[in-house]
Design goal:
The structure holds two protein chains of two kinds. Chain A is mainly α. Chain A has helices spanning 3-8, 10-35, 39-63, 69-90, 95-117, 121-128, 136-165, 167-172, 177-218, 222-247, 251-272; one strand at residues 283-284. The interface between A and B is medium-sized, with 34 and 35 residues. Strand 1 of chain A pairs antiparallel with strand 6 of chain B, so a sheet runs across the interface.
Chain lengths: 285, 261
């Protein structure tokens, strides 16, 4: 199948448009997610979607109310993200501990509801996603998310960058880091929920984590990091969808492998450039 | 307003401290880090604060910056909008964070948008001028994580100066540099102080640095033990009292002997 043939199918066209919107959006947000060491945080929010979907079905079955499951997943994820952000700042528990019990607790709760409702088939769609199920409504939803994420990053880039580098320094510059952290956590939750249909719970964090990780290997400035990350975020899902059509492979895993291939390519480039210092690092005092 | 009234008005402004600290106390749990501390910082002052570890120096800065709430007393600023530039002793950050010195200074610039490292012409001029003033203009495009301790210290000073502060707070500015670097930094700070009449409040363990830079020294060990000109305060007797070593000779100093300036 060549590109024009691929484009002629409506469901693939929507999948490609979706990939081009969500890929760079997740990658740009992912720059801050990875620099703040929150990769596991976004992963746990993705997994909590299992509970959100299960709650949606429970509500529908018991009350007869047919609410958009996406809305329930969004509300649940935002609540969980806010709770985790609150626990990070108000308790002495380490972030990885908070994430671990929130993540396992919410997934366990979701699986129990699914088992109770006897809707095991639900799990397939949640775990692996289905980018070809995207319709015009999904594209509009994703475009709105992209606008909100890019708008937030554009307007808050200075405080966000400074508080990522060192929160205490940011506070001395008058930046209210508490508010910023809550807003950022909620934005991650919204991005994860809207992007779920593309890769599913299990693979979604690849879209957020791999492009900035690859970009970091070849970037010597923050501007380059953002730019390269967005380009990889655009290229990998696009190539993944096209390759999966041409080679008849499952789309989600192909998109993830496209991301991993670009990461390996960036690593090779960094070695070729003699940029090995980027692979080291650590906390400096 | 006649001439004498105008003079009196300007005298009042000059006399009014930029920062007044009144009976300040800060308690962490049951431990008082700072107690009944008083200090006035006037426009153009260069005040050095010395004292032992755990004496409350960093807590004092945090209280001035509003990062900790006073348990007792208060910090009075000459205006709510008093611009304070702060240079921390250490800045813990991920050295693999790919950000250049120019980008770091841009995100430190107050009230500016920052988009992918984009720097406006006027802003770029200000950053370059500040770096030139600190003799590190060649570092503009260098990655932050590759700087030496001394270079990084100057970049932090530059970041604080870009706030266009009326009061500059320096926490151990000479801690991460060798004697030569410390002397250079001291000369630069003197130069900036003379040129701008900037008020500077700094904390240091380096008595040589303090004696050559400060116009007023305050000895702090939870509370103010002594305050005055360096030649009257930096004496073996008062230092021994401040550091809690009274009765033992202060290394290299005779009692009541001032440090060489």
């Amino acid at each position: 199948m060549n590109l024009s043939e691929i484009w002629s199918y409506e469901f693939i066209r929507y999948a490609l448009i979706s990939a081009c919107i969500l890929g760079p959006t997740c990658a740009l947000l992912g720059v801050y997610v990875t620099l703040r060491g929150m990769a596991f945080f976004s992963d746990s929010l993705a997994h909590s979607a299992v509970t959100g979907v299960a709650l949606g079905f429970l509500l529908e079955e018991k009350t007869g109310l047919a609410i958009d499951p996406m809305l329930i997943v969004l509300v649940f994820s935002v609540c969980l993200a806010s709770l985790m952000a609150w626990l990070f700042h108000r308790t002495t528990l380490r972030p990885d501990t908070v994430i671990a019990f929130s993540f396992t607790g919410s997934v366990a709760f979701g699986v129990i509801i699914i088992a109770w409702l006897q809707k095991y088939r639900l799990l397939d769609g949640i775990l692996f996603g289905s980018i070809y199920a995207n319709g015009p409504e999904d594209i509009v939803r994703q475009a709105i998310l992209a606008l909100v994420v890019c708008g937030f990053l554009f307007l808050q880039m200075r405080p966000l960058t400074l508080s990522t580098l060192n929160p205490e320094l940011a506070q001395t510059r008058g930046i209210r880091t508490g508010w910023l952290n809550y807003a950022f956590a909620i934005l991650i939750a919204a991005t994860v929920v809207v992007s779920l249909r593309m890769l599913g719970v299990l693979l979604l964090s690849a879209l957020i984590v791999i492009p900035p990780a690859a970009a970091k290997l070849v970037s010597n400035s923050f501007a380059a990091l953002m730019l390269v990350s967005a380009v990889i975020g655009l290229a990998a899902p696009f190539c993944g969808v096209v390759a999966s059509c041409q080679l008849d492979l499952p789309t989600g895993p192909t998109i993830v492998l496209a991301n991993v291939s670009l990461l390996i390519l960036c690593y090779a480039v960094s070695l070729f450039m003699g940029n090995r210092t980027l692979l080291r690092g650590g906390r400096k005092e | 307003m006649n001439v004498s009234a105008a003079d009196s008005f300007h005298d009042d402004i000059d006399r009014k401290p930029l920062l007044r600290i009144e009976r300040l106390g800060v308690r962490y749990g049951s431990h008082w880090a700072l107690r009944d501390f008083d200090l006035d910082v006037h426009r153009g002052d260069m005040v050095g604060i010395i004292g032992p570890n755990g004496g409350g120096k960093s807590t004092l800065f945090k209280a001035i910056l509003g990062l900790v709430a006073p348990t007792s007393g208060r910090v009075i600023k000459s205006s709510e909008a008093l611009r304070i530039g702060y240079v921390p002793q250490h800045l813990t950050y991920d050295t693999s964070f790919p950000i250049t010195v120019g980008e770091f200074l841009t995100v430190n610039h107050p009230g500016r948008f920052f988009w992918c490292g984009g720097v406006g012409r006027k802003q770029k001029r200000e950053i370059t001028d500040t770096l030139e003033r600190l003799h590190v203009a060649d570092l503009l495009g260098q990655r932050l994580g590759t700087l030496s301790g001394g270079q990084f210290q100057r970049i932090l000073v530059a970041a604080a100066l870009l706030q266009k502060p009326e009061l500059l707070l320096l926490d151990e500015p000479s801690a991460s540099v060798d004697r030569r670097g410390s002397d250079d930094l001291r000369d630069i700070l003197k130069e900036i102080h003379h040129a701008t009449s900037l008020s500077v409040l700094f904390v240091s363990h380096d008595l040589h640095f303090v004696s050559h830079l400060a116009k007023k020294v305050c000895c702090l060990n939870q509370t103010c033990c002594a305050e005055g000109a360096p030649e009257t305060v930096l004496t073996g007797h008062l230092l021994a009292q401040t550091y809690g070593t009274a009765g033992k000779p202060w290394p290299g100093l005779q009692p009541a002997e001032p440090l060489p300036r």
